[in-house]
Amino acid sequence: MEAEPILTMAGICKSYPGVRALSNVDFDLMPGEIHALVGENGAGKSTLIKILTGVEKLDSGRITLEGKDILPKSTQDAQKLGIGTVYQEINLCPNLTVAENIFIGKEKTKHGKIDWKSLYADARRTMKGLNLDIDVQKPLNSYSVAVQQMVAIARTLEFSSKVLILDEPTSSLDQNEANKLFEIMRQLRDRGLGILFITHFIDQVYEVSDRITILRNGGLVGHYRTRDLPKVQMVAKMIGKDYSDLVAMDRTARPEQEAAEKPFLRAEKLGRRGDIAPFDLAVGKGEVIGLTGLLGSGRTELAQLLFGIRRADTGRLVLNGKEIKIAKPIDGIRNGFAYCPEDRKAQGVIGELTVRENIIMALQASRGHLKRISRKEQEAIADRYIKALNIKASSQEQLVRNLSGGNQQKVILARWLATDPELLILDEPTRGIDIGAKSEIQKLVRRLAKNDIAILFISSEVDETLRCSTRLVVLRDKKVVGELRGEDMNENRVMRMIAEEVEQP
Amino acid sequence: MLKKLLRSKYFPIIITSVLFVVLFGIGSALFEGFFSLQVFLNLFIDNAYLIVIATGMSMVLILGGIDISVGSVIAMVCMASAAMLRDHVNPYLVMLLMVAVGAAFGFTQGCLIQFFKIQPFIVTLAGLFFARGMTAVINTTSINIKDPTYVAISNAKIPLPGGNYVSPGVVIALVLLAAASLVMTYTKFGRTVYAIGGNEASANLMGLPVGKTKILVYTVNGIYSSIAGIVFSFYMLSGYTRHAVGAEMDAISSSVIGGMSLTGGIGYVPGALFGVLINGTIQTLITFQGTLSSWWAKIVSGLLLCAFIVLQRMILKNKGVGES
């Protein structure tokens, strides 16, 4: 194992106007290893990668590849040197065939024409090398994201064969697909490739990586052998605070289950064909109801039905003893509901607007657009929530797209809290944000529930749901299959309920 | 079987060619003398210039762009040629000059689009006004072309078996169509055009020469529209400010009916020919009918265009469903 590193980065510094993104970071990659690069959002992972791939220029420091100094000027340049990157979003052309996506830019020609036959044959061979037997003549968009990711890897390997950077490659893959990817990563490692793996899934770090490099706030925390570093310690090093903090939150104050004796909202046989079977649900003030189930079990559909994004075709909804009709989101808002969607980029924050404008948005909508909220009032409201939720922004007027994922999520939360809702629906509020922000949002959820509002909490992470909720509603195959409360709320029971009838068809 | 057909990448072009056969069949059944090789060939003769610009337009659409200046370029080329020929400039030099003007025109538009990141629609709209305006600057009234070479080419009939014939313009159009088709399928340039149309940002990250390719496509389209202008001046033997008004829209509609997608990356250049033939057949049908206003041709092709866009959506959607 005392081989020469294939790639070293020494004393890397990089500043953006007003921010020190990286200060004096060292990093080295051995041939034939999978090296995980971890850190919270804003730790400097992506800046380091950008420097390595030529997207950004470093201020000072040295990069050597196989003993030679290099300074990639562009992605193409890095590619030519032998450093290839596969990004989280797939940067391929969906309309072209798999084969073309692998080879475009360096197709073999015969008599000045592209030799399609050998192109397809080569592509087939390349994909087989990755254990994937697919029709390479089909357009890329006829395959799943997982396969597209493999194609991206295949292309990268064709173009550069020394260092492979995988930037959050698993975030859109399910467990099976991720496993397949890991298999290929191991295979490539055994061929002597140096693989740099960036992920925020801690389990995955431990599943495939040989070594770990941890960054925090633009500085290097350290390099570790994966097997010598317990998970708990890694997390502690990443967030830079004592892990006992997190554990404490884990076990102590699970929200008291005294609520729900007087539900203010009641769904009776509410349902919509094809989305969710009719269900009953009673919601009381101060409750956090966790909706849990596998992906596609109907969690989101249930929530959207309550808020009016989907329109119920059976059943009724009773609010404070009166039946209400909810056909579209504005009805939900007017009745004191709030919904933070799952995909915050596409459905939630508006990056081009400022923090203040984003926070004020739903409140303005609920008051009607003619009754403009005065600037002063806007500022007061924004200020209050920035403080209350601890949103890290340089000012109210910062554009939301410049915030980290966790802070964007908090902005959405603030937006809905500003409408003073009675029912707050949180759909995957912690997805894709780092651990520190995650635990902060979880704490926030519980704090909010004490303030006399009810929360519907949706998460695919069971332990998170358990930790935050006072009551669990379990869904399966677009049906509510049961409720758990009190002592029954544990991972084991939930898993059994989710799995139970899957076995008996 | 049907599903397989629906999934096939050639589906739009199959539909288009079938539709053409059906329309031609209807004409043949309804009108005596419709079903003849010469009527079929006349579709080419009357629409040679349209085949040329529809071909160029197809490349631009596959790139994910648009060029609405082509009709005006045709008018400008006709007018400039007519004026120069009136002043006894060598006809071949005139043609060469016109191609150069077209290339420069397209190159400029391409550069504006690429370097200033301006919407192609706006850039080429400016091009449309500019070229149409230049036409009027050269001469506000019609100029007839009396140059013997042009007249000879205009009257030339290239004989085909059975006493039928085509014009030299048709040969030019088909050569240009074939060239574009081959280039788009068999060269790196062509494949890069498809890649850019599919996802420009990705194409860039994949290390493809995006800027160069885009400028080149607009340049080629400029050349194609100037050649269409030359073909049109053979056909009309005149320069006139109102020549080929709206031809760019006919080119776009032919191209879309031929399977090109306005969002880019999808379609096969030869499809444009079928698009032109369908539009031409509708026109011919209405001429044969005799009592209907010729504007009905526009109405029918408008409806067809609509139908084809809906069809494309459905195909894309169908593919989307197939994924999950």
Structure explained in plain terms:
The complex is a heterodimer of chains A (505) and B (324). In chain A, strands 6-9-10-3-11-12 form a six-stranded mixed β-sheet, with helices on both faces. In chain A, strands 18-19-20-15-21-22 form a six-stranded mixed β-sheet, sandwiched between helices. Chain A has four domains: 7-82 and 160-240, 3-Layer(aba) Sandwich (Rossmann fold), CATH 3.40.50.300; 94-159, no CATH class; 252-336 and 422-503, P-loop containing nucleotide triphosphate hydrolases (Rossmann fold), CATH 3.40.50; 352-420, no CATH class. In chain A, a hairpin with a 2-residue loop joins β4 and β5. Chain A is of the alpha/beta class and 505 residues long. Helices cover 37% and strands 25% of the residues of chain A. In chain A, α13 (355-367) packs across α14 and α13 (355-367) runs parallel beside α15. Chain A is built from 18 helices and 22 strands. Chain A is globular and about 75 Å long. The termini of chain A are far apart. Chain A has helices at residues 45-52, 75-81, 98-103, 116-129, 145-159, 175-190, 202-208, 231-239, 243-251, 299-307, 329-334, 344-348, 355-367, 375-388, 405-417, 435-450, 462-468, 491-503, and strands at 7-16, 19-29, 33-38, 60-65, 68-70, 83-86, 109-110, 113-114, 163-167, 194-198, 211-216, 219-225, 263-272, 276-284, 288-292, 314-319, 322-324, 337-340, 423-427, 454-458, 471-476, 479-485. Chain B is mainly alpha-helical and 324 residues long. Chain B has helices at residues 2-7, 11-30, 37-46, 48-63, 70-86, 91-115, 120-138, 148-155, 168-186, 188-198, 200-205, 210-236, 247-257, 271-289, 295-323; strands at 143-144, 158-160, 164-166, 238-239. Residues 320-324 of chain B have low confidence and may be disordered. Chain B has a domain at 48-269.
